């Protein structure tokens, strides 16, 4: 079982978020027991940006069971298609293409997505299996 992870879950863990930190950590541990945890290039980039340097980021990665999984061409095309549909339906630019890339990567290159952002993903990626550590 491959679980893609969203940036918000990783940030919950490393920042020891009072509300979601332990829940997110427990969810990651459960997912690791069932298989592999992967982060697409978008999540990898967003997550690395919260650290002071690449060296601090690399050190934090050593404590997480995370594997880098770049977005393939088909996932990127799916993200573009879903973004186009979103915009045609009147979607505003408050959702960036990165969100669509995370979801398309998870639906095509993993078995499920570990995220707290379930409303958006459920609406635009109806077949995407989601795990929400906040519930």
Describe this structure in words.
With 135 residues, the protein is α/β, with parallel strands linked by helices. It has one domain: 5'-nuclease (Rossmann fold). The chain is built from seven helices and five strands; from the N terminus they run E-H-H-E-H-H-E-H-H-E-H-E. It has helices spanning 7-14, 21-34, 41-48, 54-61, 73-88, 97-109, 118-124, and strands at 2-5, 36-39, 66-68, 112-114, 130-131. Strands 3-2-1-4-5 form a five-stranded parallel β-sheet. Helix 7 links the parallel strand 4 (112-114) and strand 5 (130-131).
Chart the SSEs and their pairings.
Elements: E1 2-5, H1 7-14, H2 21-34, E2 36-39, H3 41-48, H4 54-61, E3 66-68, H5 73-88, H6 97-109, E4 112-114, H7 118-124, E5 130-131
Parallel strand pairs: 1-2, 1-4, 2-3, 4-5
Helix pairs in contact: 1-2, 1-3, 5-6
